[in-house]
# Entry
Amino acid sequence: MNASNLALEHDYIVVGGGSAGCVLANRLSAQPGASVLLLEAGPDSEPFWVRTPAGVGNVFFDERINWKSLTEPEPHLAGRRIYWPRGKIIGGSSAINGMAYVRGCASDYDRWQAMGNRGWSWQDVLPYFRRAETSDNGDSAWRGHEGPLRVSLPDHQHPTTDAFVQACIAAGIPRNPDIAGATLDGAGYLQHTIGDGRRSTTARAYLAPARSRFNLRVVGGALATRIRFENGSAIGVEFSQGGVSHTAHARREVLICAGAMGSPQLLMLSGIGAPEQLQTHGIPMVRALPGVGANLHDHLVINAGYEVRAGASLNAALSGWRKYVQGASYLLHHRGPLAMGTSHAVAFVRSGVLMALPDIQVSFRPLSFAFDSNNHLRMHPFPGIQFASAMLQPRSRGHIALRSADPQVPPMIYANYLAEPEDERVMIAAMRWIRSIASAQPLADLIVREDLPGDKVNGDDEVIDFVRRSSQSLYHPVGTCAMGTGPQAVVDARLRVHGVPRLRVVDASVIPQIVRGNVNAPTVMIAEKAADMIFEDFQHETRPVSGEVRDDAVHA
# Structure
């Protein structure tokens, strides 16, 4: 590989221009005295299908902007390799996800603090959720109205979505007018990171307004290959762009925002991780941290589908010649089905009467589809609806491991789904909840038959066999660089890598225990809070002592 003489020196180097990296790039470069370099492995662009909310199916398998990761064969899922899409584009997974805006329960964050992470209670993080968003729900004690990220409800709901919410109430689930408000419990309409009919990625919301700043540089197509150290402290990053190797130097800090797979991989490639893992690949050890890559967990989901009466589904409107009419309408007005998120409503429920908090998420869409053998999304030929029911608090844990010391080679993913028997019980309960809602009025009157899994799957043994053969990831991997104080912790409560000065991890990998819901909103919150902590720490380190002015307190 060719080496370049290009000199890059900035105060902060942010590795990964995804959901967290774009937030940091904005907030850090807002300080005139701080220069920021943002490195993104994917393209620095926003194609049409990324901007279009209903374009999820078109980017789901697009290798140009998607890492298209796969787990290793899962022993408890019939040996299947589970597909994990990840954004390889500026905006990261916020550019390819389902756009659902869910924060989780207040107790999720109180538990983070109880695990040794001071400053991460619900009351601590709520201001950052509010700072990040401009919500259709307006300003309140719970919601924000001046943030970069647009959070909205669609301009109208399909009647079958209304029927789902009413069926949830009939099934004993309370109505919740704001899933991201005071409580998570109950059923209601999903809010999405969509603004004016366009996907509100962190690249659009945070990075675009900051691009004109002289102290921010964004480099696309730049794969970070190794963190550089001097006397044990992080001093820069090596990266490859177009087959040419570059080195960027950081005057203050290196900030890793490469996600639950990319961040532990880069740490291990750089000599930070479990000693046996580094030795296997001949990587010199910089810092022994056995928790790097460990504690991997994710939301496992089962999908169920129903054929419904004519007119009770969007399938016909999104098929044949009608889909072109919808496309033209979207181009003209940015409204209609193409301006909506993938799931339209949701219910948060409990797997048993003894559960204190919701541990199952049931999402609903008034349409049905499948991917064909060429990975093209196809609407079902009959009018259909779909449910997706996920386990929110998995007990099972997996890990990320290096496959090679070559940065171009993806790591191995051992998700280890359903390793704990309790997780099986919850997944069985998740299927029961789908059927309970589907059998409640007024939704029951619209349903013709259960298409998936079908009437041959009834008993617990049959349901868990269906789960093993058909379940998928909800694409919420977390925990592989967990914050905390124990022997498996990778970062402290200020997201600093234990024992490695000037190095932090800021993304979903630091989450010690997954939240009860989608993880994109919490990831944005983490980056908002991290930006404040980074400046607070810098100001503390450079504060003059006894009236003296230190040379490094001012950046020329």
Remarks:
- The domain at 154-190+300-391+418-470 is CATH 3.30.410.40 (Cholesterol Oxidase; domain 2).
- The mean pLDDT is 94.
- Residues 254 and 503 are 5 Å apart (CA to CA).
